[in-house]
Amino acid sequence: MIDLTITEALKKLKSREISATELTRAHIARIEKYGTELNCYITTTPERALRDASAADERYANGTPRVLDGIPIAMKDLFATRGIRTTAASRMLENFVPEYESTISQKYIDAGTVLLGKANLDEFAMGTFSKTSYFGAPVSPWQRERRLTAGGSSGGTTSAVAGGLAMGGTGTDTGGSIRFPASITGLVGVKPTYGLCSRWGCVAFASSLDTPGPIARTVDDAALLLSIMAGHDDKDSTSAPDAHFDIDSELKPILGTGKKLRIGVIREFQNVEISPDMKRIFESRIADLKSAGAEIVDVSIPNILDALAAYYIIAPAEASSNLARYDGMRYGLRVDGTDLIDTYKKTRAAGFGDEVKRRMIIGTAVLSSESYDVYFMQAARVRRMIADSFNRAFEMCDLIVCPSGASTAMPLDSDLSPLEYYALDLFTVAMNLAGVPAVSTPAGMAENGLPLGMQVVGRRFDDMRVLQLAKHIQQFSGVNNRPTVIMGE
Ligand code: GLN
Fold first, then answer.
1. Is position 215 within any domain?
2. 115: CATH
3. Global pTM?
4. Is 125's C-beta closer than 6 angstroms to any atom of ligand 1?
5. Active-site residue set
6. pLDDT tens-digit map of 138-176
7. What number does the ligand 1 atom closest to the CA of 359 have?
């Protein structure tokens, strides 16, 4: 039963061919079998899941089912869940049990989904392999004897969804944390337009960039999840006033409809070194698009290669301010010192891991009066220029495609420096700086038997067409989206 996509499962649930309880039990069994090895959940909630499932079954019996009634999902452990520990993968919040529900997790409850547990991630979502988690890194279910990364920071969700330990789930994308992990685990990862999905109740990393979004095995499933996540929220001041994303059932075709589609390829990315596999796959998918009638156009985003530098100034700056609240006074870890200042120091020294401390030090430095103009303001200008360039590019084309990363998943024990990790975000950060929607969709299989993804990027609030094109590309990818195959059963 864990083979089913969300769309397929909903049909079977509606026709009462399967029950939500059976579907949930199958996933709980899968978690019992592989959960420890994959380390994809920080907290599992099987009793809650079975309660959710039986409520869903009752609604099916009464003829009053909700949109996603009975679908078992994983919630990134960055979204506050009432009465369920929410850690952000940090020692600082190891025992934090919120008294409130984030808007996103509330929307999943309202849609009738079944909560299987809180998915692992990088500490405070800072990282690329989920290795900065206080609870240890999640592992990819692909070629699992090799212990490959499932990516980061939403690596617990990708490990769970790719391995059949959830049918779909949530991530957050500040600089690529949904798209990169999805791309190396054969999944669909959606970074919606900034402002489409509420950040309220989601542990903040860099507020002007943080974007909640769905992760699933097919684009149709991801679109369905996005439709329940999207919407204006008065509690989030950056939520778009008219935010909505509606879909009746499946995404409609975007090519072959008689209307010419212009697809842009970013000139500046052409000179970036990528693996021969990624190059071959990207070129084949472009060729498919051409033969499906799309017009391929060359577009320029002149400052796109500076996006990385701007991001690694802006994101730490915002993080240093957001994380100032963890001082041991109101909630979270507290290590008593000799006086107030000593308590702050001891709490923060013990509660945060190395990467989080590195970001706070960088962030505090770039915001200091000596550095503010040279670093922070410059980065803000680069950000503005990149956003303007995207706008200009979208006068030449309807959608843009580019790789999601340079190569397939690396082993977790790869020895990379912080700068080498940061460089892996090259293809993803610009879209966060510009606030535009971007989806990573499976694009092809590399020689080593691992999947690779590519991105579709659109104008702000053009999330629908971005997904429609992503669906078209996934159909040609040859990447299997069934978890049983991945686990070699
Ligand atoms: N890898 C990036 C970073 O470490 C992106 C993280 C994210 O999107 N949350 O900041």
1. yes
2. 3.90.1300.10
3. 0.98
4. yes
5. 76, 153, 177
6. 999 999 999 999 999 999 999 999 999 999 999 999 999
7. 10
